[in-house]
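Worked example
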Amino acid sequence: MRDMLTGGPLDVLTGDYLAELTMLILGRDRLKDPSLGYAKTFLRQLEEGLGLAKDNGVKIVSNAGGLNPAGLAARIRELADRLGIDVTVAHVEGDDLLPRAAELGLGSPLTANAYLGAWGIAECLTEGADVVVTGRVTDASVIVGPAAAHFGWSRDDYDALAGAVAAGHVIECGAQATGGNYAFFTEHAIGTPGFPIAEISADGSSVITKHPGTGGVVDVGTVTAQLLYEIGGARYAGPDVTARFDTIQLQQDGENRVRLSGVRGEPPPPTLKVCRNALGGFRNEVTFVLTGLDIEDKARLVREQLTGALAAKPPSEVRWTLARTDHADADTQETASAFLRCAVKDAEADVVGRAFSGAAIELALASIPGFHVTAPPGKAAPYGVYTEAYVDAGEVGHVAVLADGTTTAIEPARDTTRLSPLPEPELPPALPDGPRRKVALGTIAGARSGDKGGNANIGVWVRSPDEWRWLATTLTVGELRRLLPETDGLTVHRHMLPNLFALNFVVEGLLGEGVAAQARFDPQAKAVGEWLRARHIDIPEVLL
């Protein structure tokens, strides 16, 4: 926050502090202390950032209010009084549906929050707020709201709103747009990337850039990577507008400047997405280190022994994975070793607590040669389950609360259109036949992957028209399944984005019940794209 406020000019400093997992963590905080439920890190950052923002005339908009935006707004006012800073603090509420969860058919979750849009934020800024904090709004809303307020956009300025949504989607994950987590990082001096800035124009087009002198890079590739992050099809739906990601045009506009334009918008759907988190039970895990010879036989013996030790009262779910990280004739002990992981879940803590970890460690003198584990035995830990639901937008009370307590109800969108997939674009012509070489897909293709509840998305892009002709006609759903065998048996959707030379795959159920349930080695699918890039495939030599 300090770097952004001192590194160059800003009108509005925005911050996205919420994720599906964060909402669960804040829900557990609120169980311990009802006055909590907001992102405490944001409040700590304001200790030095609030005065800098006031001195520089910078507004601050953040969803750090989490489950308690009113509580965070009150804490900010206390902080401002203590520091002697005269600021007007407003907040947006109405996303919390927990008190009405049963009535709305949402069950009995720990948290239930609807994704609100940008107009409550815009109302607070229009009425003079210096700081606006919200609960669960869409990630891009903290960017769209200030733009709508500044330019005086109407609710039906769909193209402008869609352009701001695209810009917001690019910058809401911070340095992921400036070289962080970037597939082609070896082509640049990344260092410590600066945070991105969106210079938004009245028509909704924007330039993505960063403060001068900061690390990282902003180019068409870094912006493309972030546009593909955690999306579905070409229609990117939100509470205020459905942005058509298939219409986005990107153009390098100078060093560390990328112009984003041409985005078309459509009316939003009539429903709002709801993030539900519930406590799913308890989990535990142990990782056995298998070294040297007979790795498969060692893994078999450990599985047989631990399964037998737990036979009297086995956990309801037991998942084994063997990672063959061992090398033959290895010159270090670590590279001679493989890792056998056993993860367990059950509704009862006792079943996966000492009963499990004790049974695992008691094998130490009675199992495989060289027996050891990566960490001491642990206790059972609660885990969460994320599910999404949808409610009619008219059921959600979106409210802007000004500093003096005055409230303004934000009406839901009047014009709506039910979300439907776009027709699949026409495939480009295939490349002529020619010699091919089996190399890693990542030799020419970038990827960015992430999670949406229990689903994973994998965005893959290339950087030239000929590479696109090859990618679009080669990387089919069937080929993806071959390259990523873990997707076998799961539903996979492929979406084409020709303007970005990109494909987006959505793999349903790869992450089980979501990140908090930790169903797999990479529970948020952050590196699935890098796994895909590392797989070998026949690529035309003309592209290499």
In short: Residues 94 and 398 are 5 Å apart (CA to CA).
